[in-house]
UniProtKB/TrEMBL annotation:
The keyword Signal appears for this protein: yes
Protein name, as recorded: YciI family protein
Natural source organism: Niabella yanshanensis
Origin superkingdom: Bacteria
Sequence ranges assigned to domain YCII-related in this UniProt record: 45-133
Keywords: Signal
Signal sequence coordinates: 1-22
Length: 154
């Protein structure tokens, strides 16, 4: 019985030591974590938007072209203002998904206000599904490098 107790004690101490080691990160930078809104896991809540083909049917191709030019300009503004963290189109698919946004918004209400600044959404060429998404608080850091690797600007 003493051997079983001792073995359990050793296992519990080993688990506690491993857990303590996992919690101590020598590279942790509190000021950076705080500036990014990070929790103790290095994560935070974002708003994930799946853009889909909307119900609007606009026959005039020039109008559609202008609306999507406005869509791209709005993307740039949202990035500049610190709200849009990730954006990009999907390849062809049978679900009518067109692209995604990850917004650095406080909640769904703020995200919806931001989405309604998009002319493609306002006109109904695009509609969206909006979900809470828990991801790395460091995600916006890649934006610091995106201009340095892109030969063309939108």
């Amino acid at each position: 019985m003493k051997q079983i107790f001792f073995a359990l004690l050793v296992i519990m101490c080993s688990f506690s030591t491993a857990q303590a080691q996992a919690q101590n990160n020598a590279d942790y930078n509190k000021s950076l974590a705080d500036s990014l809104g990070s929790d103790e896991r290095g994560m935070k809540m974002y708003q994930l938007i799946l853009l889909k083909t909307g119900p609007a049917a606009i026959a005039d191709k020039d109008s559609v072209k202008q609306i999507f030019a406005g869509h791209m300009q709005n993307i740039g503004k949202l990035v500049k203002d610190g709200y849009l963290v990730v954006a990009g189109p999907f390849g062809k698919n049978d679900k009518q998904y067109r692209g995604l946004f990850i917004l650095n918004a406080r909640n769904k209400e703020e995200a919806e206000k931001l989405l309604l600044t998009d002319p493609a959404i306002k006109t109904g060429l695009l509609v969206y599904d909006l979900l809470d998404w828990y991801g790395s608080a460091a995600l916006p850091m890649y934006l610091l490098y995106s201009d340095k690797i892109s030969k063309t600007k939108f």
